[in-house]
Write a structure and sequence with these properties.
This protein is of the alpha/beta class and 118 residues long. It has a single domain, classed as 3-Layer(aba) Sandwich (Oxidized Rhodanese, domain 1), CATH 3.40.250. It is built from six helices and five strands, in the order E-H-E-H-E-H-E-H-E-H-H. A five-stranded parallel beta sheet has the order 1-5-4-2-3. 26% of the residues are buried.
Length: 118
């Protein structure tokens, strides 16, 4: 294998990711603020790719991290970076698009969410 060959980074299906989340694994959403605001997985940690290098120290070094974006491209880059920093990061294949298609819950944070609930 030459240095120009692509390296296969670990990835998990959204179904496996959902199972792992129920076991206490951390989901990190690397999409940008407007995408996060439009809806994200419950319990996810918001850490946009644009701020990842500056804020990598905020992530736990002793936990498995599942990395998600919209469709899997940015999360793959984030996974590569986090693994180079020594973290146990795994890409969620298909991103939030696949998450939603698989019936995964999506929540929207809002300052008025409680007032709007019936």
């Amino acid at each position: 294998m030459s240095n120009s060959d692509s390296v296969e980074l670990p990835g998990v299906s959204v179904e496996k990711a959902m199972k792992e989340l129920s076991e206490g694994v951390i989901l990190v959403d690397v999409r940008e603020q407007d995408e996060w605001d439009a809806g994200h997985a419950p319990g996810a940690t918001f850490l946009p790719l644009s701020a990842l290098q500056e804020r990598v120290s905020e992530l736990p070094r002793d936990s498995r991290l599942l990395i998600v974006c919209h469709s899997g491209g940015r999360s793959l880059r984030a996974t590569n970076f986090l693994r180079s920093e020594g973290l146990d990061a795994v890409n969620v294949e298909g991103g939030m698009s696949a998450w939603s298609a698989a019936g995964g819950s999506v929540v929207v944070d809002s300052h008025t969410a409680n007032a709007d609930e019936d």
